[in-house]
From TrEMBL, chain A:
GO terms for cellular component: cell division site; plasma membrane. It is found in: Membrane. It holds the Pfam family FTSW_RODA_SPOVE. InterPro entries: FtsW/RodA (IPR001182). This is Cell division protein FtsW (Lipid II flippase). It is a multi-pass membrane protein. PANTHER family: CELL CYCLE PROTEIN, PEPTIDOGLYCAN GLYCOSYLTRANSFERASE RODA. Residues 1-14 have a biased composition (Low complexity). The chain crosses the membrane at residues 31-48, 60-81, 88-107, 127-145, 157-175, 195-216, 237-256, 262-278, 283-302, 365-387, 407-428, 440-459. Keywords: Cell cycle, Cell division, Cell shape, Membrane, Transmembrane, Transmembrane helix.
Automatic annotation (TrEMBL), chain B:
Keywords: Glycosyltransferase, Transferase. It comes from the Bacteria. This is Peptidoglycan glycosyltransferase. Gene3D superfamilies: DD-peptidase/beta-lactamase superfamily, Penicillin-binding protein 2a (Domain 2). It comes from Micromonospora parathelypteridis. Residues 160-491 form the Penicillin-binding protein transpeptidase domain. GO terms for biological process: cell wall organization.
Length: 497, 501
């Protein structure tokens, strides 16, 4: 790319010039935003009760307060362990998580007989379970912050994590269906009656660490030692082998587990980390061609051959015309669209809609259920919050000085954004519907924990990015005036002219 | 690596932009289509959130909503049970609604534009007053009589219908179709229960869901002679004109002779028109019809309301329960010339002539009301949820004038003679002038005949009070006499219930 073609350098330099401002920890800003988020969650709970119970119980603030205590705990941990972490991440995630708990509680209230509604305890039902999961997930995130004092330290376990990732992805596939299958998808490991985890959710994190580490190590080779074919520089097979292998195994397994959403997620994750690492747009193009080619091939194969592709064909058919079979195959998608349409611009108000009609409203269709009650304006606000988290993650990646951190944070942030796109696009008929959790909103511990771990990593990377280089680890000295120093401490970053 | 990271940021922005645009498309542009989709169960739950208004007959609620603790807040119940089923219809959760429930749905549900003021008031007071109330014209006593008499008819007929109208206004006093059904299980919130009840009714060979009073057409038999007599009176024949009769008569081009129901009926070669009506003389009317010609009979029938396809019975303005058109059928040859055999049979209400009980009652009513036929209606008044404001009050409307007042007077005399001296004696009510015409209609060679009676009751001053049509399907011998008896009972009840008018 020529210099003339690059856009004005102001956004790039702005981040670097604001080194002085970045050096401030901004923890108090985080605290105020967090309190604001919890106030919103409490207000949401009150409105739900007013609509569903015709009265607001004296305990309406209990879920919000419980969550508030949990998040405040994490806030304190961050103050000590990651004092320079991005102050917007925790409040944004806390708001989503809180609304998720509030909405699940709203579903519980709607399902309960009218007489029992007022007495529904804070920790009862799905909402209560999600509250407990949140507590566990936040403790896990705090633990990760405590163990991983520098994000570079996990690169030491990259191969172990890569292996673990593959094992986690494959585990449900090899386990007998009785303990791994639910609603036709083999994604679970069931422990006893009520406890189950989705190992794939954690595999996402592990594999990304491996991708990031491997690609950073082979970065020079990948961008330099290449063969030119059709005007595109291809790296040598042996340089790309392991990462392609790991990715291929995961995607194949997922395709045969019929978890199309996650395989799409892994594909996007892989292509984007490859692109960030090599800085070659050709990877994006190849990725897109492969993706659309593969999708079309799977569609055609599904129509003619069937087998493992039949599921894909079915989903594509439903996507093209959900109203062709509105009471059976297209039922879910149709009901999701009707919920969104009923919500309209302003929504029915928290507790004012009928999201209970939606199948899987606590999981895949939670965004449609919320859309019915919060309307287009509410959903837009939620999308903005997600976008904020993703862009803050990318910003941490931009600002951090080591390549591993850049790739890790960039990959994680993009993966989070892609996941939101896949599920929200799916339920709103923008793309074919594939089963995915909506990060921080959907019911379920695995997804919540994995995504909180992801946030912990982003917090850690952003802490590293914003920490003044002169400061000793763990301490937060007042920012020193003077020229920005971060370039001195960027040994692995290749500064290109 | 910062350049690709920035581009990834842009990609995420674009992806979220697509989501945003798509959500706008769904939640703004397509919102109304999705909101009102047939597959959207929310509309229904919202429907059941507000208390639906009552439907009342004679001051009693015959359809009302009870609060429940379920997801659907209000359960529709029908305290009147099967007796009012064909008028009220039902408001089921998962099936199509029927009857007045369907016709007045917007008003009962409170979503009608007329009730916008009440909804606004509710917004400010915080109350939820529910939907509006529909007051029917039905007289409780007449409806009771029609339902009970029809159900316990003395000839064992399983199917039939009765309808009574106030001849002066067209207000329906009673409307019963037999067999009937209990609408309560159909309105059950347990949709499987409702569906099971519906399927059972739908598969019942006696077709209880059918509204026989409004939508079933059967050969009217001799009741159709009133139409032929009206045509005759307008073509120079009077009550006392001697018309050809006889015990048997064969139309010019057909081999099958027309006979009377009994050898004792008009065996003499000529009888007066009055006697022909009183005794129900088939040979007389067959010859009279051939003499008048097909066009005269078809035209007279049309003027009485035959062939009208768009008549509805509900409010007087528009809407209401649909009715079937009564037909005279093809009486003529293909070239438009008279077919005497067809004409002779049609003149005594056979061959292709088909009539609804509603049409029978309307013929009797127009005779009683000096030749003026009023548009029948079922909805007397629409009351606001709090019953203070009336949004609609029926104002009787003339539908048509089938015969002149003078011809109506002659027809009245002849019909009164039927009840006083002829075949309709069982309809008589002491102290009142009752007129009518019986009918026995062959349906198929191997099936029992249908029994008909159309008639009216006038008080001492000659004011018409009620006009009735009773039809007993495949009632067999004695069917029309039983129909006359039931009609008399219904009119007696209508007389005893001045509040119903």
């Amino acid at each position: 790319m020529t210099v003339a073609a690059t856009p004005a350098p102001s956004p790039a330099t702005a981040g670097e010039q604001s080194g002085v401002r970045l050096a401030r920890s901004r923890r108090n800003a985080e605290l105020s935003l967090l309190l604001l988020a919890m106030a919103l969650v409490a207000a949401y709970g009150a409105t739900v009760e007013a609509n569903l119970l015709d009265t607001v119980t004296p305990d309406f603030w209990m879920p919000a307060a419980t969550l508030g205590v949990v998040f405040l705990g994490l806030h304190v941990v961050i103050r000590f362990l990651a004092p320079f972490a991005d102050p917007a991440l925790l409040p944004a995630v806390a708001l989503l998580n809180g609304l998720g708990v509030g909405f699940l509680r709203r579903i519980d209230l709607g399902d309960a007989p009218v007489a029992d509604r007022e007495g529904l305890a804070t920790f009862a039902g799905q909402g209560g379970r999600q509250l407990a999961w949140t507590l566990g997930a936040v403790i896990l995130a705090a633990g990760l912050l405590a163990i991983m004092r520098d994000h570079r330290s996990i690169s030491r376990y990259a191969y172990t994590l890569g292996l673990a990732g593959i094992v986690l992805v494959m585990l449900p596939a090899v386990l007998p269906p009785s303990i791994s299958e639910r609603n036709g998808a083999k994604l679970w490991i069931q422990f006893g009656e009520s406890f189950s985890i989705q190992p794939g959710e954690f595999a996402k994190l592990a594999l990304l660490v491996f991708f990031a580490y491997y690609l950073v190590r082979k970065r020079e080779v990948l961008s330099l030692a290449s063969r030119r074919f059709l005007g595109i520089d291809f790296p040598r097979g042996r340089d790309l082998g392991p990462v392609v292998g790991v990715w291929l195994i995961s995607v194949l397994v997922l395709v045969f587990e019929k978890d199309l959403g996650t395989s799409l997620l892994y594909f996007g994750m892989f292509v984007v980390t490859l692109y960030i690492a090599t800085e070659r747009v050709s990877w994006l193009l190849i990725g897109l061609v492969l993706f659309f080619g593969g999708a079309y091939l799977a569609y055609v194969l599904g129509e003619t051959v069937g087998g493992p592709f039949a599921n894909f064909y079915l989903r594509a058919e439903i996507w093209l015309d959900p109203f062709a079979d509105p009471t059976d195959k297209g039922y879910q998608l149709v009901q999701g669209l009707l919920a969104l349409g009923t919500g309209g611009l302003f929504g029915a108000g928290p507790g004012g809609g009928q999201p209970g009609i939606l199948p899987e409203v606590q999981n895949d269709f939670i965004f449609a259920g919320i859309g019915e009650e919060l309307g287009l304006f509410g959903l837009s606000a939620l999308l903005v919050v997600y976008l904020l988290i993703v862009e803050r993650g990318l910003r941490a990646a931009l600002a951090v000085r080591d390549s591993f951190g850049k790739l890790l944070a960039g990959g994680l942030a993009f993966t989070l954004g892609l996941q939101v796109f896949v599920i929200v696009g799916g339920i709103s008929k923008l793309i074919p519907l594939t089963g995915q959790t909506t990060p921080f909103l959907s019911a379920g511990g695995s997804s919540l924990m994995a995504n909180w771990l992801l946030i912990a990593v982003l917090l850690r990377v952003s802490d590293g990015a914003r920490r003044p280089v002169t400061g000793a680890a763990g301490k937060a000295p007042r920012p020193a005036a003077g020229p920005p120093e971060q370039l001195h401490g960027a040994p692995t970053e290749v500064i290109k002219p | 690596m910062n350049a690709p990271l920035r581009r990834v940021g842009v990609v995420v922005m674009v992806l979220f932009g697509l989501l945003f645009v798509n959500l706008n498309w769904i939640q703004a542009y397509k919102a109304d289509e999705y909101r009102t989709s047939d597959y959207n169960g929310r509309v229904q739950v919202a429907d059941y959130k507000r208390k639906r208004g009552n439907i009342e007959a004679g001051g009693t609620a015959v359809a009302t909503s009870k609060e429940t603790t379920g997801t659907l807040k209000f359960l529709r119940t029908y305290p009147g049970g099967a007796e009012y089923a064909h008028v009220l219809g039902y408001k089921p959760v998962n099936l199509a609604d029927q009857g007045i429930e369907r016709v007045e749905n917007d008003f009962l549900a409170g979503t009608s534009d007329q009730l916008i003021g009440d909804r606004l008031k509710d917004m400010f007071t915080g109350d939820d007053s529910g939907g509006g109330n529909v007051l029917l014209t039905l007289s409780k006593k007449a409806q009771d009589a029609a339902y009970n008499q029809l159900r316990n008819n003395q000839v064992g007929a399983k199917k039939g219908a009765a309808i009574a109208i106030d001849p002066r206004t067209g207000a329906v006093q009673a409307l019963v179709s037999m067999p009937s059904f209990d609408p309560n299980p159909l309105a059950s919130h347990t949709s499987s229960e409702a569906a099971a009840a519906f399927n059972k009714l739908e598969q019942d060979p006696d077709e209880p869901l059918k509204n026989r009073a409004l939508s079933e057409t059967l050969p009217p038999g001799s009741t159709f002679k009133i139409v032929v007599a009206a045509a005759a009176l307008e073509n120079g024949i009077t009550k006392t004109t001697q018309i050809p009769a006889g015990s048997s008569w064969t139309p010019p081009t057909s081999g099958s002779p027309i006979r009377n129901a009994d050898a004792s009926i008009c065996p003499e070669p000529k009888v007066t028109l009055l006697a022909a009506v009183t005794e129900s003389c088939n040979t007389g009317f067959a010859q009279l019809g051939v003499q008048l010609g097909a066009n005269a009979i078809k035209e007279k029938a049309r003027q009485f309301g035959f062939e009208q396809e768009d008549l509805t019975v509900g409010e007087l303005g528009e809407g209401g329960l649909p009715t079937a058109a009564s037909r005279t059928g093809t009486i003529q040859n293909a070239d438009g010339g008279d077919d005497p055999a067809a004409l002779a049979q049609s003149s005594i209400g056979q061959r292709d002539v088909r009539m609804t009980p509603l049409e029978g009652a309307m013929i009797a009513a127009s005779v009683a009301n000096n030749g003026s036929q009023m548009r029948p209606y079922l909805v007397r008044q629409l009351l606001a949820p709090d019953r203070t404001t009336s949004y609609y009050t029926a104002k009787a409307r003339e539908l048509r004038q089938p015969v002149s007042s003078q011809v109506a007077g002659d027809l009245r005399d002849m019909m009164v003679s039927v009840v006083q001296n002829g075949t309709g004696k069982r309809a008589a009510i002491s102290g009142y002038t009752v007129g009518g015409k019986t009918g026995t209609a062959q349906s198929a060679p191997d099936r029992p005949d249908h029994g008909w009676f159309i008639g009216f009751a006038l008080d001492k001053n000659g004011t018409p009070i009620s006009a009735v049509c009773v039809m007993l399907e495949q009632a067999g011998s004695g069917g029309s006499a039983e129909a006359a008896r039931i009609a008399g009972q219904i009119m007696r009840a209508a007389i005893a219930d001045p509040g119903g008018r």
